[in-house]
C-alpha cells in the first residue's frame, strides 16, 4: 500500500500562490526535527539559530559557499559548536526546573558519554558548558579512560567508567581514587567485582564503585536490547544481593556509591523510563536502609532526539516526550519513592550524549549528476520499418499522452499491465535476434514515456490506495542523484540500523522542487543508496529535489549527524573521514559567524597507510612496471617519467571527488 502524497510534493495551500520558503519548510518537516534551531530563511536557504534567547542566525548555504571559495573540497561536516553548549544548558535547566517544582533536596549531574563523539573539540565544548553545573564524563574503554582522566582538574568532577574492564583499567582507576579523584568503575558482571575487590586489597586502597543493575523494566525502541534479561550488561538481582552481602561482611558499605541502569540511547516511550526510575529508586532506598552510603543514582542515557517528521511523534525515529518531560519523569519518580520511604534523595546522574551532540553536526554533500527518465518529444515518430510490437507501444503511448479523458485507477492499472507485457516481449524478441538493437532501445523509451504519463495521471487522480504494481512504478520513475559521499562512512546508522536522518537541499528552497530522487553515493556497492526519507506517513522512498543546473553546485544537508555517525564510520572503499569546519556565532563578522577551525579530510596517502600501503613501496613498484613498458617499447622514457609523476601526485589528493579537477589539464 502507498500513501497518495508519495506521488508528488504537496502544493501550496493556494494552488495559484507562488512557492515560498515556508512551503519548503513544511515539505521537509523542518519544524519537527529542527526544533527551534533550524529554519528556512527568506532567501530559501537552510539556516541555524544556535544560541539560547537569540534570533542570531547562520546561513548554512553561505557557510558552504565561503568554504568552497577557500578551496575546501566537499563533502564537509559543519559543526555548529554553539549548539553543544546550548543543549547542555537546556538539559541542566530542565532538571533544575523539575527539582525546584517538587522541592528536590538532591543535586543533578550530567555526564557526557564520550563514545557518542570522542572528537576533542566536542568533548571540551561540552565540558566547558557543563562546568557551571558540575558536569562530568563517562568512558567505556581503555582509550577513552586515558583520554578523559586528564580532564578531571577538579577532584569533584565525576568520571563514570562503564563497559568491561580488565585488570590494567581497574588498577589505574584505583590509583586515581587514591589521588582523590571521583572516578567510579561501574561493575557490569559479578566477576568484575571480585577482581576489583582483590586489586583494592593488593593496593591497600579503599575502593569506591558503582553497579549496573539489570532491571525487570525493558526499554522501548531501536535500542531496547540494552535492558532486560537479554542485556549483555548488568548485575541481576540475586548477584546484586550477594555483592551487597560481601561488602557488608568486609565492612565496606561506603564503597558502593552509585547505582546505574540504562534503557538504550534513544528511549522512545517516557512511561518505560518512569517505570525504570521507580524500580531503581526502590533498590536505592533498600540499600540506604541497610546502611549503604549510595550517593549517585545514574539513570544512564536515553534522552531521545526527534528524527521524525511529526513533533513528539513517538514513531520509529521519534520520541513521545520533550526534554522537560524527560527531566520531570526522572526527578518526580525519585522524589516520590524517597519521600514515601523517608530516605534522603540521591544525586541524579544522566549520561546523555545523543541529545547533546546530535543537532550540532550537518553533513553537506554535493550532487554531481542525475540519472532521469526522460519522456519522448511530442513529435517523435517510429521508424518506417518498425516492428509491429514497437508500433503497438508507440500507439499506446500516443493515446495515453494525448487523450484528454480522465482514466480510472482500474484503467491505469490495465494499461500498465499491457505496456509491461509488451516490453518483456520486446526483450524476448531481441534475445532471439528478431528485433534490432535500435528498435529495442526505442521500445524501452516508449515504455518509460508511457510510465511517465501513467504517473502523471496517477498524480491527478490522487487515489486513496495504490495497487502494488503502481506503487512500484512510483519508485522506478524517481531520479538518481550521484552525491559525493559514502553512506558507509558518514551514515552508518542508516545503513546498519535503518535510522533515518533529515535530508533536504541547502538552497533553492524558494523554488518548488519538481523532481524526486534517491541518493547514490560514490561506493561500488548497491547498499550505498539513500532511498528512505523522513515522512509522517508510510515509508517515503524519494526526496523532493530541484533539477540540476549546468555549472552550479547543488548541495544537500544531512542533519542530526553529531551522535555516533562521526565516529562509527568505517574505511569502506578507502574514502575515509571528510573535511570538518567548526563555526561559532560572531556578530562582528560578515554573516554573523566565524569559522574557528578547519580539519582537512584524509588524503589518499593517509587512507592507504591504514591498510599498510606506503608511498615509497608503491612508487617503486610503479617505477618497475613503467620501466618494463619502456624497455618493450610500449611508451617512451619521457612519457613514463610524466606518468610516474602523475601517479605520485595522487597520494596528496583527497579521497572524494574533486570537481575542480575535472576541467584541469593533465
**CATH architecture label of the domain at 105-352:** Alpha-Beta Barrel
- Number of beta strands: 21
Fraction of residues in helix: 25-40%
Strand portion, in percent? Answer: 5-15%
* Mean pLDDT across every amino acid position: 89
Which superfamily, in CATH terms, is the homologous superfamily of the domain at 105-352? Alanine racemase
Describe this structure in words.
The protein is an alpha/beta fold and 666 residues long. Among the domains are: 105-352, Alanine racemase (TIM Barrel), CATH 3.20.20; 388-475, Methane Monooxygenase Hydroxylase, Chain G, domain 1 (Up-down Bundle); 618-661, no CATH class. It has 22 helices and 21 strands. Strands 4, 13, 14, 15, 16, 17, 18, 19, 20 and 21 form a 10-stranded mixed beta sheet that branches. It has an 8-stranded parallel beta barrel with strand order 5-6-7-8-9-10-11-12, surrounded by 7 helices. It has a 3-stranded antiparallel beta sheet with strand order 1-2-3. Strand 16 (515-520) and strand 17 (529-530) form a beta hairpin. Mean pLDDT is 89; it is low at 1-6, 8-13 and 223-227.
Amino acid at each position: 500500500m502507498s500513501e497518495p502524497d508519495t506521488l508528488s510534493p504537496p502544493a501550496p495551500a493556494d494552488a495559484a500562490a507562488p512557492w515560498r520558503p515556508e512551503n519548503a519548510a513544511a515539505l521537509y518537516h523542518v519544524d519537527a526535527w529542527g526544533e527551534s534551531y533550524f529554519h528556512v530563511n527568506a532567501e530559501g536557504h537552510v539556516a541555524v539559530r544556535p544560541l539560547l534567547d537569540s534570533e542570531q542566525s547562520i546561513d548554512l548555504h553561505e557557510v558552504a559557499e565561503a568554504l568552497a571559495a577557500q578551496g575546501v573540497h566537499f563533502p564537509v561536516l559543519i559543526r555548529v559548536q554553539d549548539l553543544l553548549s546550548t543543549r547542555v544548558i537546556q538539559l541542566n535547566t530542565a532538571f533544575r526546573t523539575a527539582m525546584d517544582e517538587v522541592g528536590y533536596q538532591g543535586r543533578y549531574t550530567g555526564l557526557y558519554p564520550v563514545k557518542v563523539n570522542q572528537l576533542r573539540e566536542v568533548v571540551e565544548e561540552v565540558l566547558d558548558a557543563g562546568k557551571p553545573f558540575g558536569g562530568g564524563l563517562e568512558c567505556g574503554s581503555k582509550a577513552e579512560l586515558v583520554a578523559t582522566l586528564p580532564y578531571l582538574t577538579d577532584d569533584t568532577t565525576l568520571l563514570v567508567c562503564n563497559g568491561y574492564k580488565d585488570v590494567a583499567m581497574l588498577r589505574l582507576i584505583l590509583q586515581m581514587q587514591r589521588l582523590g579523584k571521583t572516578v567510579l568503575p561501574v561493575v557490569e558482571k559479578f566477576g568484575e567485582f571480585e577482581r576489583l575487590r582483590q586489586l583494592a586489597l593488593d593496593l591497600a586502597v579503599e575502593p569506591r564503585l558503582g553497579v549496573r543493575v539489570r532491571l525487570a523494566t525493558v526499554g522501548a525502541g531501536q535500542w531496547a536490547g540494552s535492558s532486560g534479561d537479554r542485556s549483555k550488561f548488568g548485575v541481576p538481582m540475586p548477584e546484586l544481593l550477594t555483592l551487597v552481602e560481601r561488602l557488608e561482611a568486609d565492612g565496606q558499605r561506603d564503597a558502593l556509591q552509585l547505582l546505574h541502569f540504562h534503557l538504550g540511547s534513544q528511549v522512545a516511550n517516557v512511561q518505560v523510563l518512569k517505570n525504570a526510575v521507580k524500580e531503581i529508586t526502590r533498590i536505592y532506598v533498600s540499600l540506604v536502609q541497610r546502611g549503604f552510603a549510595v550517593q549517585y543514582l545514574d539513570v544512564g542515557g536515553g534522552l531521545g532526539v526527534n528524527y521524525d517528521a511529526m513533533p513528539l511523534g513517538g514513531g520509529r525515529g521519534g520520541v513521545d516526550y520533550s526534554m522537560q518531560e524527560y527531566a520531570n519523569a526522572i526527578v518526580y519518580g525519585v522524589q516520590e519513592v524517597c519521600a514515601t520511604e523517608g530516605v534522603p534523595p540521591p544525586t541524579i546522574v544522566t549520561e546523555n550524549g545523543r541529545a547533546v551532540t546530535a543537532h550540532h553536526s550537518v553533513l553537506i554533500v554535493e550532487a554531481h549528476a542525475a540519472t532521469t527518465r526522460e519522456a519522448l518529444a511530442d513529435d517523435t515518430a517510429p521508424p518506417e520499418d518498425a516492428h509491429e510490437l514497437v508500433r503497438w507501444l508507440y500507439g499506446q503511448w500516443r493515446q495515453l499522452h494525448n487523450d484528454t479523458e480522465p482514466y480510472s485507477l482500474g484503467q491505469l492499472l490495465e494499461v500498465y499491465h499491457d505496456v509491461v507485457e509488451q516490453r518483456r516481449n520486446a526483450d524476448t524478441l531481441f534475445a532471439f535476434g528478431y528485433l534490432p538493437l535500435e528498435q529495442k532501445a526505442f521500445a524501452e523509451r516508449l515504455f518509460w514515456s508511457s510510465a511517465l504519463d501513467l504517473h502523471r495521471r496517477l498524480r491527478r487522480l490522487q487515489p486513496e490506495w495504490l495497487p502494488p504494481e503502481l506503487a512500484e512504478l512510483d519508485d522506478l520513475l524517481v531520479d538518481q542523484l550521484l552525491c559525493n559521499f559514502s553512506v558507509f562512512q558518514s551514515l552508518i546508522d542508516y545503513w546498519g540500523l535503518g535510522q533515518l536522518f533529515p535530508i533536504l537541499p541547502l538552497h533553492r528552497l524558494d523554488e518548488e522542487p519538481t523532481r524526486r530522487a534517491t541518493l547514490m553515493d560514490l561506493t561500488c556497492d548497491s547498499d550505498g543508496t539513500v532511498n528512505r526519507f523522513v515522512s509522517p506517513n508510510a515509508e517515503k522512498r524519494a526526496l523532493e529535489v530541484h533539477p540540476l543546473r549546468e555549472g552550479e553546485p547543488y548541495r544537500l544537508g544531512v542533519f542530526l549527524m553529531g551522535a555516533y555517525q562521526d565516529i562509527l564510520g568505517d574505511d569502506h572503499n578507502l574514502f575515509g573521514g571528510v573535511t570538518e569546519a567548526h563555526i561559532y556565532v560572531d556578530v562582528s563578522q560578515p554573516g554573523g559567524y566565524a569559522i574557528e577551525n578547519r580539519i582537512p579530510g584524509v588524503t589518499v596517502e593517509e587512507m592507504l597507510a591504514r591498510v599498510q600501503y606506503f608511498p615509497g613501496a608503491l612508487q617503486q613498484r610503479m617505477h618497475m612496471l613503467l620501466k618494463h613498458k619502456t624497455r618493450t617499447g610500449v611508451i617512451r622514457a619521457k612519457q613514463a617519467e610524466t606518468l610516474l609523476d602523475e601517479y605520485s601526485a595522487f597520494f596528496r589528493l583527497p579521497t572524494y571527488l574533486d570537481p575542480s579537477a575535472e576541467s584541469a589539464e593533465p
